[in-house]
Write a structure and sequence with these properties.
alpha/beta; Rossmann fold; five-stranded mixed beta sheet
């Protein structure tokens, strides 16, 4: 079984370089609904396509050519991030992103979804794919895909793990 991962297209949203917690959380909500930059047409000879519930996933799938059967699932939604602290202080964006990721990795109570819950979604999705046994394309998200690739490798899938997938990047895995 072949699983082709495609990270969504580049989101068209200008982030403030410095922001307080309210602005960071608002920008994350805006990001979830923002349009993407156009991608070149992609011809991948696989019919089944899974997309997340986030609009950028469906918008990216629209660049796939050929006959496609698309199925939307929340199991592959991006890891939801939010501010790590309530503050009016304007902190650098890199700090908000790093600290939000750290609280997710640490299963912190403030994380919108701790990593153990993300892992449950990954396990359920890979279980679904294994049960169906069909080649597929999965259009999804960076943080989620990195964890999914690690899990796939542990389960014996062949493919390269890329920690930071670029927008529109395609990576193939195959079951042993």
């Amino acid at each position: 079984m072949k699983i082709v991962l495609i990270r969504h297209g580049r989101v068209l949203l200008d982030w403030a370089r410095r922001c307080d917690s309210e602005t960071f959380d608002r920008n994350n909500r805006l990001y979830d609904g923002a349009p993407i930059a156009p991608l070149p047409a992609m011809t991948i000879p696989i019919e089944k396509v899974y997309i997340s519930e986030l609009p950028r996933s469906a918008a990216t799938a629209a660049f796939l050519r050929g006959s496609k059967t698309i199925e939307k699932t929340g199991l592959i939604n991006e890891v939801p991030v939010g501010s790590f602290v309530e503050t009016k202080r304007r902190l650098p964006l890199w700090l908000w992103n790093a600290a939000s990721t750290a609280q997710w990795l640490a299963n912190a109570s403030r994380a919108r979804e701790p990593i153990r819950e993300t892992q449950k979604r990954i396990d359920a999705f890979l279980g679904l794919l294994a049960a169906r046994g069909e080649d597929c394309i999965v259009v999804g998200h960076g943080m989620y895909f990195y964890r999914m690739m690690l899990t796939m490798k542990r389960r014996g899938y062949a493919g390269r793990i890329h920690r930071h997938m670029e927008n529109g990047e395609v990576i193939e895995f195959e079951s042993a």
